[in-house]
Amino acid sequence: MSAAVFLDRDGTLIDELGYLADPDALRLFPGAADAVAAWNRAGLPVVLVTNQSGVARGLLDEASLARVHARLAGLLGRSGARLDLILHCPHHPTEGEPPFRRACSCRKPEPGMLLEAAERLGIDLGASWLVGDAERDLEAGRRAGVRRLLLVATGKGIAADARLRERGVDDYELVADLAAAAERVLAGSSG
Ligand SMILES: [Mg+2]
Ligand SMILES: [Zn+2]
Fold first, then answer.
1. Which of 24, 52, 129, 188 has its CA 20 to 30 A from that of 171?
2. Looking at the CA of 16, which ligand is closest?
3. Which ligand number lies closest to the CA of residue 17?
4. What digits encode the pLDDT tens for the residues 15-63?
């Protein structure tokens, strides 16, 4: 059983561009590939967990999403970085048509994707990290038993941080971006 890093996609690893269907529009955040490569070198599995309700909404299909993720892997690869597993939730509880329109257990804040990854890769959830830019990322981590929660200030992170502080939630750390998250994880894992 090993610790892992669970990573949100939009607003955390890449620019948030709505329902991204065009691989060529994908933009990695500066320093993001190096952050993933640093986790790779440290032997930490990196698992991408992403809500993609655009599939349920009919805005992209699974084939387009696969092309986007192939492009993502290609861009990361240029920096010697790789994702060990990519899981996505194509569902939405109320939009679109079945089978994608359903209340599922994988759409964050539900923990399904994290639990599936843990089973497939033999991950110790209690020793793992979650990095995201939204409340529902952190909540998916909590529900899966991940206790080391990092909120990045990219994407929706600043607004999410303000709302969480207002509610008195303090079980996470705010970091500037994915590069800062990588430093935080690597410092914490050695302690
Ligand atoms: Mg996000
Ligand atoms: Zn789902």
1. 52
2. 1
3. 1
4. 998 899 999 999 999 999 999 999 999 999 999 999 999 999 999 999 9
Q: From the CA of 107, which ligand is nearest?
A: 2
- Ligand closest to CA 101: 2
Can you give the residue ranges of every domain in the chain?
A: 5-190
State the pLDDT at residue 190: 46
Is the pTM of the predicted complex or chain greater than 0.90? yes
d(CA 85, CA 129): 15
Angstrom distance (rounded) from CA 109 to CA 101: 17
Which amino acid is it at 42?
A
Alpha carbon of 152 to ligand 1 centroid (Å): 9
CATH superfamily of 5-190: HAD superfamily/HAD-like (3.40.50.1000)
Smallest CA-to-CA distance from 108 within 142, 83, 74 is with 142
CA of 22 to the centre of ligand 2 (A): 22
In angstroms, the CA 129 to CA 188 distance is 10
Distance (Å, whole) CA 145 – CA 107: 16
Please give the structure tokens belonging to residue 184: 């935080």
Distance of CA 43 from the midpoint of ligand 2 (Å): 28
